Amino acid sequence: MFTVEEACLVVVDVQGKLATIVDESEVTIQNASKLAQAMQVLGVPVLWLEQNPSRLGGTALEIAQHIQGQPIAKMAFSACQEEEFMTALKATGRSQFIMTGIETHICVYQTARQLKEQGFEVEVVADAVSSRTKENKELGLEKMKALGILPTSTEMILYELLQRADHEHFKTILQLVK
After folding, report:
1. CA pair distance 128, 134, nearest whole angstrom
2. What local confidence, expressed as pLDDT, does residue 44 receive?
3. Which residues contact 69 (CB under 8 A, 6 or more apart)?
4. Which segments in the chain show pLDDT lower than 50?
């Protein structure tokens, strides 16, 4: 079970024009934004990535406005190949990673795979990831599932983190998922 004490959200490359042209872009951005807002409320750290930002642009404002600090720029498809990401990851002290972002079959998949290979627990938020085509999203999710990286949903992971209806932040999170 994912917990507030061990979880960390990884937001992968929801940037520029690409963020607006992926399959179901509005839903993906909206759910990634809900996740970022919820993590802020719950005190769960967020690692925020941008692929080649000088060419692809910055993270969608709907998400970026809810994340503290600066994004980690990367050129590798897997963030695990970037020293700055690995340093930030270790600094969180967390062992559970919740994946959101684009593209499911490239950067989300490769990062999730390498995190899993390093012994971390990883889940991918199926309604908060996307690719340019639905088929590539589905293939990315299937390959991750085959590796033991289970899919979850925005609502499912948030309620898993809360665990109880009497959690101090339940009403705030409830408003986000409505």
Report:
1. 13
2. 98
3. 48
4. none
**DSSP bridge pairs for 130:** 102
Characterize the bridge pairing of strands 150-152 and 121-130: parallel
Rounded-to-integer distance, Cα 171 and Cα 178, Å: 11
Distance separating alpha carbons of residues 37 and 18, to the nearest angstrom: 22
Strand partners, 51: 74
Q: Is the C-alpha dihedral spanning 15, 17, 19, 22 positive or negative?
A: negative
**3-state DSSP assignment of residue 2:** coil
In one letter, which amino acid is 177? V
Say if residues 91 and 67 touch (Cβ distance below 8 Å): no
In the block, residue with structure tokens 């692809």: 56
Q: Rounded CA gap, 88 and 114, in Å? A: 15
Residue among 77, 46, 52 at smallest CA distance from 64:
46
What is the predicted pLDDT for the residue at 9? 98
User: What size, in residues, is the chain?
Assistant: 178
Structure tokens at 133: 């085509």
The pTM is what? 0.96
The confidence score (pLDDT) of residue 178 equals: 85
